[in-house]
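Support reply, case 0932

Customer input (verbatim):
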Amino acid sequence: MSFFPAPLTARPGALLDRVAPVTRLVAGSAWLVGAVATTDVGVGLRLCLAALVALPLAAGIPWRSVPRRMAPIVIGAAGLALVAAFGSELNRDPATPALLDLGAVRLTAPGLAAGLGLGLRLVAIALTSLLVFGGLDTTRLADSLVQQWRLPDRFAFGTIAALRLAPLIAADWTAVGAARRLRGLEPRWLPGRVVAAIGRLFTLLVAAIRRAERAALAMDARGFDSGTARSRYRLVSVGPLDGVVIAGAVGSAVALVLVGR
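Our regenerated output:
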């Protein structure tokens, strides 16, 4: 069994699947701006709840596939929120009642709110990224970047090729671990596993460099660096539905940030 989750599949015909990929990027950017613009706990919580509702409704991503993908982010956000809460400058105000006072360690309600706001901001950014990129066809994304945003073909398709290497690296990590266990090289104790992980990371680095070299040669062989104009046979169009999605994303982001103020 692999620690890494299975590839994410979205429901065919979902709302975000019927618009151009750049529309998804613009719509997600509106929510990201709302998440970054403030550390208010209420705003972060509302953005998280709205993203959870939009995942199955707009992106066609079932809720059952969310917990395993979000678990590392939630754990990291919780640790960051705890550190930010105890290290906040707001805890040093002697006039503010302390929720926890253990000598040098002091925690107040404003400090706790600042830490929670920072953690919720990170979770909201992760959920928005999952909403935008979950189930997205990377080839169609590259075509849309080139056709709508006029990005260079070499940059757009090279970036998509790099994104496609991520699942392969996860598969390599599992394969290297299985090969080491088959040869009896995998230590049983935690310190030995930490040292062995460094060797596995070096193996992944070598494999990633070789894949990057092969991808670069393949792109050069297909004329991505020729400097001549390339023809298109996968056309991506932008219609009224794209404008509706962008307007809805911007309006909802503004409403989620300003409600209650």
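We compared this against your earlier run and they match. Two observations from our side: The helical segments are 21-37, 41-59, 66-86, 109-133, 138-148, 153-182, 190-221, 240-258. The mean pLDDT is 84. Please reopen the case if you see a mismatch on your end.
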